[in-house]
Design goal:
The chain has 333 residues and is mainly alpha-helical. The protein is built from 13 helices and two strands. The chain has a domain of 131 residues: Peroxidase, domain 2.
Length: 333
C-alpha cells in the first residue's frame, strides 16, 4: 500500500501541474474548436461590475458567520448544480417539477444566501452577474471561510432555462458504488483523482441519517450492520440517529475544520456514507485516499484544481442561456 501511496502522490503532483498549465494556458488559435469554458475569464466583470466578487465574498462571509454549517451547504449546492446539466444555476430554479423541487433535493440549503447576493448585485449592476457565476464564486468563498484554499474563479457563465426534477436523481445520494461514481465523474470531464478530492469536501458538513440507516441495521438486506463500519462509530450513530431526518456530521472528529481527517476516518472505517467508505476499499481510489490522509498539502492544492474543473463543467457562455434577474425564475420573454 505504501508503494501505491507514493505512486498516487506522484500522479497528484503531475495532475496538478498539468491542470494549472491548462487553466493558465492561452486561448486556442482561430479555427480550433473551443470548449465553452474557454470563454470564461478572470476579468469578465472588471468593467461591467468591478465590485461583483467583493460583494459575493462579503455576503458569504456574513451568512457563514451567522451559521457555519452554510459553508458546506453552499459547496454541496454548487456540486448538485454542476452534476446536472452543468454549472448553469438550474438547481436554483424554483417551480413545480424543477430539480430544486425534487425529493432528493429536499435537504439542500443556501438558497436564501444566493438570493441575498443576487438582490444586492441587481441593485449595483442590473442584469449583469449571472446566478451561475454567483453560486460558483460563493462555493469558493465558503471554502475559504471554512479554512480551505483560495482559487481564482473565471467568470462569464450564463444561466440555464431548463430544470427537471427527475434529472436531480443523477446526483450521488450516498449509496452508489465506486464504479458508478467514476462513470458519473467521467461523463462530466472529471477523473478518479477529482472524485477522491471533491469527496474531501465532506471534511465539513452534515448528512441526514436516512441515506445510511441501512448500514446501521440492515446492510444489503442482511438485517445486520455493515461489517466495514467501525464498532464504536456504529454505536455512536445508533444513538444519534433516532429518526431518518436527524443530522450527523460527515467528519465525526473535526467537523468544523477543513482538513484531511475525513480521509483518516476512512482508514479507521469511520466513513459516514457508503460512497465515502468505499473509496478506501476500492483499489482504484484507495491509493489517493492514502496520499491525501498522509499529505495535507496535496489535498489543499488538488482541491483548488478539482473545484476549478468542477466549476467549468458544461457551462453556458456567450449567447447561450441568460442572466436571470431573479435566480428563482427564468426571465420573462
Amino acid at each position: 500500500m505504501i508503494k501505491f501511496c507514493y505512486l498516487a502522490i506522484f500522479l497528484i503532483l503531475v495532475h496538478h501541474l498539468v491542470a494549472v498549465q491548462s487553466i493558465n494556458a492561452a486561448a486556442p488559435k482561430k479555427g480550433v474548436s473551443r470548449n465553452p469554458a474557454d470563454f470564461l475569464s478572470l476579468g469578465y466583470y472588471l468593467k461591467k461590475c468591478p465590485e461583483a466578487e467583493s460583494i459575493i465574498q462579503q455576503k458569504v462571509g456574513a451568512w457563514i458567520q451567522k451559521d457555519f454549517t452554510l459553508a458546506a451547504s453552499i459547496i454541496r449546492l454548487h456540486f448538485h448544480d454542476c452534476a446536472v446539466r452543468g454549472c448553469d444555476a438550474s438547481i436554483l430554479l424554483n417551480y413545480r417539477g424543477s430539480e430544486r423541487a425534487a425529493y432528493v433535493s429536499s435537504s439542500l440549503r443556501g438558497f436564501q444566501m444566493i438570493d441575498d447576493i443576487k438582490e444586492t448585485l441587481e441593485k449595483k449592476c442590473p442584469r449583469t452577474v449571472s446566478c451561475a457565476d454567483i453560486l460558483t464564486a460563493a462555493a469558493r468563498d465558503a471554502t475559504v471561510f471554512a479554512g480551505g484554499p483560495f482559487w481564482e474563479v473565471p467568470f462569464g457563465r450564463k444561466d440555464g432555462r431548463i430544470s427537471i426534477a427527475k434529472e436531480a436523481e443523477m446526483v450521488p445520494q450516498g449509496n452508489e458504488n465506486v464504479t458508478a461514481l467514476i462513470q458519473l465523474f467521467k461523463a462530466k470531464g472529471l477523473d478518479i483523482l477529482d472524485l477522491v478530492t471533491l469527496s474531501g469536501a465532506h471534511t465539513i458538513g452534515r448528512s441526514t441519517c436516512g441515506p445510511f440507516l441501512n448500514r446501521l441495521y440492515n446492510y444489503n438486506g442482511t438485517r445486520k450492520p455493515d461489517p466495514s463500519l467501525n464498532t464504536y462509530y456504529l454505536k455512536l450513530l445508533k444513538k444519534r440517529c433516532r429518526h431518518s431526518t436527524d443530522l450527523v456530521y460527515l467528519d465525526v472528529i473535526t467537523p468544523r475544520t477543513f482538513d484531511t481527517v475525513f480521509y483518516t476516518n476512512l482508514k479507521r472505517k469511520a466513513g459516514l456514507l457508503t460512497t465515502d467508505q468505499d473509496l478506501y476499499s476500492d483499489p482504484r481510489t484507495a491509493p489517493f485516499v492514502e496520499a491525501m490522509a498522509s499529505q495535507p498539502f496535496l489535498f489543499e492544492n488538488q482541491f483548488l484544481v478539482s473545484m476549478t474543473k468542477l466549476g467549468n463543467v458544461q457551462v453556458l457562455t456567450r449567447n447561450e442561456g441568460e442572466v436571470r434577474v431573479n435566480c428563482n425564475y427564468i426571465n420573462a420573454r
